[in-house]
Structures are given as C-alpha cells and as structure tokens.
C-alpha cells in the first residue's frame, strides 16, 4: 500500500463526466496500450517508476471517480493498492511471442476496471523477447491521448516532448491591439462579428451532423459482442510516409487515413460485400488545447465525422478524397461543436446521454485517432521505449478502432475490433500495409519496401 494525505473532493468537468458514463457491456471507455522495451526491466523497477513519478507527480492517478446525487467528483484515496495497479502478466512462451501477447491482450481489454479504485492498471510482462512489455489501461475520463503522451513524457528520465508536432499547436489569442479607445471599440465590434459567425457555424455543423444519413449497414455495423480482437502493424518509418505525402501534395495524416480506407474496402470485398456507393464514416478526434496545458489532464478534444472513400477505385483516389474531406473539416466548427455537445450531455441524466450516443454513433462505423508523439525516444529507468502503441476505445454502436501514433520517427498502427465484426484483425492490418506499398510504388516507383519495415 502507498499512503497519501487525503485531499478534498474536486468536481469533475461535464465532459469528463460524459466520458465516465459512456461505458457499456460492449464498449468500455478504457484506453489500452502497450509499451515495448528492448532491454529487460524488473517489475520492481517499474513499480518504483509508477510510485515515485506517476502517482507522486499526478494527483489524478491517486483519485477515483465518485457520484453523489447527480454530481460527479474526483476523490483522492488515502492509500493506493499498488498490488492491484501493477500486476504480472504471463504470456504463452511457445510459438510466436507477438501472437501470444496479442491473444492475451484481446482477452484482457474487455474486462472492466474496478470501480472502487482509481481507474487505471498496468500489467507487466517480464522477459518478453529480449526485453519487457507493459499493458497500460487508463479510463478515458482521466485523460485524452495528448494528455497521456504528456504524462508519459513527464515520468521519463528526461523530457523529449518538445520534439512532438503537437508542440506547435497554439490557441489563437484574441485581444485589442492596445488600450486605446479606438482599438478597444474596434475589438468589441470584431468580437461581436466573430461570435455571431461562431454561433452560425456551430449551428450549421450541429444540423449537418444531426440530419446526415446513418452509415450503410455493412459488416462494420453488425450487432456488437462483449469480445475484442486487437493487432498492430510493423513500425513504418515516418520519412517514407512523408515522401509519399510530398509526392501527392498532402499530409502524412491524409496518406495514413487513405490507406485505412483501402484496408476497410479490401475486407468488405474479401467477405463478398459491395463497396460501390457505401457510406462508411469514421469519427476523428481533434485536439483543442495547446501542449503546455495537457498535464491538466481530462479531455479537451472534439470529434469530426470523416466519410471514408471506401468506394474509391485506387489508393491514389482514396488519399486525395481524404485530403479534400479533411480540409473542409479542419476549416469548420464541427470539432468545437461536438466538444460542447459532449459537455452539455454531462449535465443530463445518463439515460439521455445513452440515447444521444446511440443516435450519433449510428452515423459512423469506426473511430480513428492520430496522436503526435515525440520524434525522439522516451527513456524510462535508463531503458529506451522502443515501441509504444495503443488502441482507442469505441462508443455506442461503433465496433472498430484505428490508432495511429507517431513516435521516434516511426508511425505505429494499432487496430481493435469487436470480434463479431472482424474476427481476424491481422488480415486488415496486412491490408493496410499492402495499401501503403501500392501507393508508394505508384507515386515513387518503388517495387517494394518490406525490408525497410522494422518489426517490433
């Protein structure tokens, strides 16, 4: 047991309340991830890291969510049961270690975290290959992806977060040029116009999302089960994706999402479902706060609905279609609108939230998130973190999650799906890799790049 001074309760934000109440039997709002170390580390060393850095520095990880009446709070516990929060995980030593770990993780992630304790847990795998591995489980109400990357950096031997693309994100600041009367009046006038435009754009996005048709009833919209299947791809060098993006005059994100659309198309074709004219959307999280505020934890992001060009005839066409759609979404108000709506739902009874969740999740088949991690490696207790990856949780009736993490000049791709929708996630991951090979060959003239992929 680790003992702390018990502090007063803190009110939970409405957005975090909404995420806390979003759990269902089919979809838990738990962010799951794996940390791979090439060098061995003992479980006791990792426990010291958690106690002296994570728990001691971040009060949220000493708190549990509690409900009193209709209000939700963060309550700090006088002591933590570290034997619960860090446990050993045994993986079958026979056969392929990655496949054995994948099966073990797939069985664990549908299990809920214990409600009477802080909603996080680490499972330590000693002697994985030549090093160690750790399964990380944190409830989404505690933090979003950008916040968790910041927490990881804060417990590292030294900070490398300055190398993350997220460090360049700044919140626009609106203020008068000076205290002069004329400048203050001009600022007041432009502010009125700004907020009128904001309200109009907000209402437009709300109506557009509300009245857009639900996704086509493909295999991705079947009834969900409580079981999950996970997988991950070999690390992809960022420079290769940049080369394709530069040749196509688009972003890394456009290339990756276009390849994901291609993998979804290939799976539907393989099981004999039509792809022409189908509507398959993904909800894409959009960060709404600067990196220097991420250690406040909680959730500060909105969601946009991206229609995936599953019907596109070629990888090139699909990437270009994603580029056009993302440009429109980036210039719109949809992310801010969805963030505000989620905050509003936190005010209402959970039955209203569940109805809204079911309604809005009918308009998407997948959740896809792209977290910009540091381009320099994280070092924990003297060991380099060689490969981090995670699986984004799905909500409502959505049963597919695609997670993209840029780290140490590599792109990590994680895939999670309801077992009733995609029983074999590796096939879809292989399709994603093949999609990238195809577009790389098309735009760069490369015949193959298997040897340049680095297996984790």
Please specify the SSE layout and strand pairing.
Elements: E1 2-3, E2 10-11, H1 14-20, E3 30-37, H2 43-57, E4 63-68, E5 71-76, E6 79-80, H3 82-85, E7 86-88, H4 97-108, E8 120-128, E9 131-139, H5 145-154, H6 181-211, E10 228-232, E11 236-237, H7 238-248, H8 252-270, E12 280-287, E13 301-308, H9 315-330, H10 334-345, H11 350-361, E14 366-372, E15 379-380, E16 383-391, E17 400-407, E18 410-418, H12 425-444
Parallel strand pairs: 7-8, 12-14, 14-17
Antiparallel strand pairs: 1-6, 2-5, 3-9, 3-16, 4-5, 8-9, 10-18, 11-18, 12-13, 15-16, 17-18
Helix pairs in contact: 1-10, 6-10, 7-8, 7-12, 8-9, 8-12
Question: How would you portray this structure in words?
Answer:
One of its GO terms (cellular component) is plasma membrane. The two termini are 35 Å apart. The chain folds into 2 domains: 2-167, 2-Layer Sandwich (Chloramphenicol Acetyltransferase); 192-452, Nonribosomal peptide synthetase, condensation domain (Chloramphenicol Acetyltransferase), CATH 3.30.559. Strands 10, 11, 12, 13, 14, 17 and 18 form a 7-stranded mixed β-sheet that branches. A 6-stranded mixed β-sheet has the order 7-8-9-3-16-15. Strands 2-5-4 form a 3-stranded antiparallel β-sheet, with no helix packed on it. The protein is α+β, with helices and mostly antiparallel strands and 456 residues long. 37% of the residues lie in helices and 23% in strands.
